[in-house]
From TrEMBL:
MF-aspect GO terms: protein-containing complex binding
One Pfam match: NAD_binding_10
UniProt cross-references to InterPro entries, sorted A to Z: ComplexI_NDUFA9_subunit, NAD(P)-bd_dom, NAD(P)-bd_dom_sf
Residue ranges of domain NAD(P)-binding in the record: 7-159
Species, as recorded: Thioflavicoccus mobilis 8321
The protein's name in its UniProt record: Putative nucleoside-diphosphate sugar epimerase
Gene3D superfamilies: NAD(P)-binding Rossmann-like Domain
SUPFAM superfamilies: NAD(P)-binding Rossmann-fold domains
Length: 308
């Protein structure tokens, strides 16, 4: 199949392109000017210069394709550079849907996120609106909702390498966030990290799985771990030990409110809020249907951190 990938130069996108090629597909990639060096195996892909705001470039990228995959997502906004949740996680999806209609691409796969909700943070709300937009069409859509994603970064931002850089490599103790006065609950909120290779495999297999049409798949890894356990695993994979101390979320949010407008500050208020909500789901049925045995989250799986 010829598959248009919107967001194919990012972390998940680089792994999806590898998987599509391994499965015999031909990726068509929308590539921003100056980003061509980020493309995986460019000689086997078709590249179209432009970005998601460029309708003509979108249509050129989709032309002749059997399916389109929309992967673009951000963790924090930079409005001065036009990088906002509204623009990239919702309006971009709308434009790609419109291009798919005009070009005649019926199959549409969307990467959303576990925990999206209509009344959540701007990140969650725009992901939710994107889901509603694709559900309102007559396209053959599939939605994926991954938890936090880990794996070889390929030089991009990735969950574990970012935590290693911001927290484990820092001289400061590891913060175990807690809400209110619940100190005994510090660092006990749970996440279920999912391997980027499993996410890529899910997208690729869904392309040819009739049962995936009209389905929304939660994608969480098989290990449900507390924040403390995740950071301990990252530290162990990095060959380090760290002091861990309770950190009141209310205080961190106040500090973030003052500083999270600058990229060097490692976390935003909304990210703290979403962390404390946890991020787990039941994915056994999804992985079984797609024929995937999900990878464990352990020090062995994080070997890439040793050279980070």
């Amino acid at each position: 199949m010829k598959v248009s990938v919107i967001g194919g130069t990012g972390f998940v996108g680089s792994h999806l392109v590898e998987r599509l090629l391994a499965d015999g597909h031909v990726p068509h990639l929308l590539v921003r000017p100056g980003s061509g060096s980020k493309v995986v195996q460019p000689e086997q892909c078709r590249l179209f210069e432009g970005d998601v705001t460029d309708q003509a470039a979108l249509e050129a990228c989709l032309a002749g394709c059997d399916a389109v995959v929309y992967l673009i997502g951000i963790l924090r906004e930079h409005p001065d550079r036009g990088i906002t949740f509204e623009e990239l996680q919702f309006r971009g999806v709308e434009r790609t849907i419109a291009a798919a209609h005009r070009i005649g691409v019926q199959r549409f796969l969307l990467m959303s996120a576990n925990g999206v909700e209509a009344q959540g943070t701007p990140y969650q709300r725009t992901k939710h609106r994107a889901e509603e937009a694709i559900k309102a069409t007559e396209l053959d859509w599939t939605i994926f909702r991954p938890s936090v994603i880990f794996g070889e970064p390929h030089g991009r931002m990735e969950f574990c390498s970012q935590l290693k850089h911001d927290i484990i490599d820092s001289p400061l103790p590891v913060p175990l966030f807690f809400d209110g006065l619940a100190i005994p609950e510090a660092g006990r909120f749970q996440l279920a990290p999912v391997s980027v290779q499993d996410v890529a495999a899910a997208f690729s297999r869904a392309l040819t799985e009739p049962a995936a049409i009209g389905a929304t798949y939660p994608l969480c890894g098989p290990d449900v771990l507390t924040w403390k356990e995740i950071l301990s695993t990252i530290a162990a994979a990095s060959g380090k030990t760290k002091l861990m101390l309770p950190a009141p979320a209310a205080v961190i949010k106040v500090v973030a409110g003052l500083l999270d407008r600058w990229p060097w500050f490692p976390i935003t208020r909304d990210q703290i809020k979403m962390l404390l909500e946890g991020n787990v789901c039941g994915s056994s049925a999804a992985f079984d249907q797609l024929g995937i045995v999900p990878q464990r989250f352990d020090a062995a799986a994080l070997g890439y951190l040793k050279s980070d």
